[in-house]
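idk why but the lab printer keeps eating my pages so im just putting this in chat instead. protein + PCP:
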Amino acid sequence: MRFLIVSDDDIKNGVVTDKYFIWTEKVLKAKNVNPKVVAEVTTSGWGVFAGLNDALKLLEGLPVDVYAMPEGSVFFPHEPVMTIVGNYLDFARYETSLLGFICHSSAVATQAFRFKLAAEDKKIFSFGTRRMHPAIAAAIERAAYIGGVDGVSNFAAEKYIGLPSMGTMPHAMIICFGDQIKAWRSFDEVVDPDVSRTMLVDTYFDEKTEAIMAVENVENVSAVRLDTPSSRRGKFRKIVEEVRWELDIRGRRDVRIFVSGGLSLADVLELRDIVDAFGVGTAISGAGPIDFALDIVEREGRFVAKRGKRGGMKQVYRDWETMEDEVRLFMEPEAEGKEAMLRKVIERGRILAEPDMEEARKLALKQMEIIRKLGREQEFIG
Ligand code: PCP
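predcted complex ->
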């Protein structure tokens, strides 16, 4: 083993589990206790559901039925995003990895959704895989893309999820040339013609000076990137305004302004009218996990629930006009005019439909549009 990464097989076989499930298996087996249960995944907040692709691969082949919301769905407090029906011992030890897959992916998708909602028509790019373990780089980019980012920076996204990656240039490249103009010109000369000519303009001098140097010395400049470190920021908006002014008076209204480096949602809200694109790292990739829990809500056909949870297998019905949901018992009649959000995704271990990343993103963006139309942005941006 080269890196300290648990193997695919150890996840699939349930080695990656919490020790208390090992004891649970031992005790239940010894006492011949293995009830038929319904277990559901819920949390107390809202979010955008992602990570179902890996969750389904984990549960594939187990003698259970699984219901889930489609990836990209906005879920609300106490709504099940996923329900497992089966004998408890058939899936008990997979809880740890199951939650791990969806807690982090959904957190990233939710943050991406918030940023894109805040950015309005401006672009958001995922720049943050460097802040997290590289083993999950493709999972991060997939979740960010589902949540609504316009592009991702990690090259591995191409190989693992078939998503083209994008990038500008690092300070390291400029320092290697020892001269910004040489570096920018070389980039323009060498990099594939369909790549945006985004020049990094804050290496040695201030952003305004370097932006002017870029447009006056490089043949093709499509954008300038300001990666201004927070220690130098002061009034960042003023800096961006100055750059815009200097570009405009030189007849370069076409040159877009791209900002990056330690960006928060507040920065996006403050700058979205004068900035064209945001490269967001930690604030998306390092999103605090959604605290999903898996709880038994039926045991041998009877409603059960621990304190703080709600018993019974449920269905979530969505009113697409208002983006409001109604939760009913699964066995109750369907809510008229509303869509049932939980669909059967695994039947006796067989995956019925593989989650589709593009469809998931479309769904997330459709909900974003409804939220905008309803004027409820603030509620979701937080
Ligand atoms: C990196 C990149 C982005 C940063 C990370 C995004 O910065 O240029 O702006 O991540 P964040 O939102 O967590 O800050 P540097 O490490 O400064 O990279 P470089 O100097 O090579 O451009």
